[in-house]
């Protein structure tokens, strides 16, 4: 690793350490893994959502958290898969060291299902035309295709007390997985808000996930107005006495929810996890 790349690795560690002072973050993993996986299935759940199933012996050994996210290492069409060094936290620098003509793309996703007994993982990917490497992969993936898997981290950890979960369609797979690990008592103390243009952007059956929750709201709004619509929903139905909040999805949605909770509901910043999975008008990385 070059001195420049090592400096970037130190910087990224410092960023995460600093973020822990202003939002709720679980401990950072001490090591990462990177390995090849094979596509076994590509299922169209809705016109906007594909479920990709992958397998590899290493998957049986993983112990992912509820909203565990990972990197798909996607080689150029027709090119051999070249994996980056997993020992570095700065995976971008490792990818940039690979010759450009065979350099893979990297896109981050969360796990929907993990089946260690069959060494399989399901990943739900939103598709909107052929607009980027992740979408193109989701549309074209065939059983037998080989791509890379780079472990990363998770943001969810259970905090005792009343909680709020806010998600858009990109964060909905993680939110659904979180709900599935909560017991009846924990569900009864959980408020869920899902912002979506329409039901076809969500996993079929997602709207049935409300059973036993304290409250459940579906805010149907276009991407450009989702953040404001969710804040209005919070104003109309709150405030609640929250001990923890998890707000993920489009960057402005996550940011404005956090701002409202801190300024209007007087929540501590360190009780809120917010993450911009993507940003309107910017390519997802």
From TrEMBL:
CDD domains, per database record: siderophore_interacting
InterPro entries named in the record: FAD-bd_FR_type (IPR017927), FNR_nucleotide-bd (IPR039261), Riboflavin_synthase-like_b-brl (IPR017938), SIP_FAD-bd (IPR013113), SIP_fam (IPR039374), SIP_rossman_dom (IPR007037)
Annotated FAD-binding FR-type domain residues: 32-159
SUPFAM superfamilies: Riboflavin synthase domain-like
GO molecular function terms attached to this record: oxidoreductase activity
Record-linked PANTHER family: FERRIC REDUCTASE, NADPH-DEPENDENT (PTHR30157), NADPH-DEPENDENT FERRIC-CHELATE REDUCTASE (PTHR30157:SF0)
Name the UniProt record assigns to this protein: Siderophore-interacting protein
Native organism taxonomy: Bacteria, Bacillati, Actinomycetota, Actinomycetes, Mycobacteriales
């Amino acid at each position: 690793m070059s001195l420049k790349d090592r400096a970037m690795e130190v910087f990224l560690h410092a960023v995460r350490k600093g973020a822990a002072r202003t939002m709720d973050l679980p401990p950072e993993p001490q090591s990462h893994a990177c390995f090849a996986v094979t596509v076994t299935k590509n299922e169209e759940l809705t016109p906007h959502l594909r479920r990709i199933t992958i397998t590899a012996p290493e998957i049986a050994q993983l112990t992912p958290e509820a909203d565990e996210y990972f990197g798909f290492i996607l080689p150029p069409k027709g090119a051999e898969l070249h994996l980056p060094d997993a020992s570095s936290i700065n995976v971008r620098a490792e990818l940039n060291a690979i010759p450009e003509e065979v350099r893979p793309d990297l896109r981050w996703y969360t796990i929907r299902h993990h089946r260690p007994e069959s060494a399989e993982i399901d990943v739900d990917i939103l598709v909107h035309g052929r607009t980027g490497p992740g979408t193109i992969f989701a549309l074209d993936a065939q059983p037998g295709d080989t791509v890379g898997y780079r472990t990363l981290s998770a943001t969810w950890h259970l905090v005792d007390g009343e909680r709020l979960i806010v998600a858009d369609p990109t964060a909905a797979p993680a939110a659904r997985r979180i709900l599935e690990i909560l017991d009846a008592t924990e569900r009864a103390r959980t408020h869920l808000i899902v912002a979506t243009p329409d039901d076809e952007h969500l996993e079929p059956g997602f709207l049935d996930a409300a059973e036993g929750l304290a409250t459940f709201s579906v805010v149907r709004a276009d991407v450009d107005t989702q953040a404001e619509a969710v804040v209005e929903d919070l104003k109309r139905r709150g405030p609640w006495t929250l001990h923890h909040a998890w707000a993920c999805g489009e960057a402005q949605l996550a940011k404005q929810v956090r701002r409202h909770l801190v300024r209007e509901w007087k929540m501590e910043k360190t009780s809120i996890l917010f993450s911009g999975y993507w940003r309107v008008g910017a390519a997802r990385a």
